[in-house]
Amino acid sequence: MPTSDTDSWDKLLQIRLGAFKHNDLIKRAEQKVAQVEAATAISPLPDRPDLYRIEQLLVTMRTAVYLADQ
Predict the structure, then answer these.
(1) Using an 8 Å Cβ cutoff, are 25 and 15 in contact?
(2) Domain boundaries, the chain
(3) Predicted model pTM
(4) Half-sphere exposure for 25 (CA within 13 Å, toward CB)
(5) At 61, is the secondary structure helix, strand, or coil?
(6) Which residues contact 14 (CB under 8 A, 6 or more apart)?
(7) Hey, which of 1, 38, 49, 59 has its CA 20 to 30 A from 32?
(8) What is the pLDDT of residue 2?
(9) What is the rounded distance in angstroms from the CA atom of residue 2 to the CA atom of residue 8?
(10) What gap in Å lies between CA 16 and CA 29, rounded to an integer?
(11) Residue 5: helix, strand or coil by DSSP?
């Protein structure tokens, strides 16, 4: 599993150069999809972001920064 942008880039380059069998790549992609689906099923995150709450948080943060600069 890549641990950095460089590792990811190297892995993509290897794929492009044909260093892996197609079936192995498909199997790995299917495993990743299964991992994402499993994580989604147990995630405490809501299905959709609370846009009002996010906006209020941003307003609060911007106000604090503005007041700190004065």
Answers:
(1) yes
(2) 5-68
(3) 0.57
(4) 10
(5) helix
(6) 20
(7) 49
(8) 56
(9) 5
(10) 15
(11) helix
**Res 5: pLDDT:** 79
CA-CA distance, 30 to 46, in Å (whole number)?
Answer: 24
Q: What share of the chain is helix, strand, coil (3-state, %, to 5)?
A: 75, 0, 25
Q: Which pLDDT tens digit goes with each residue over 23-61?
A: 999 999 999 999 999 999 999 999 899 999 999 999 999
Max CA separation in the chain (angstroms)? 61
Identity at 36, one-letter amino acid code = V
Tokens for 67, please give them.
Answer: 């007041």
8 within 8 A of 14, measured Cβ to Cβ: no
Both tokens assigned to 38 = 């499993």
Residue that is written with structure tokens 């992609």 in the block: 29
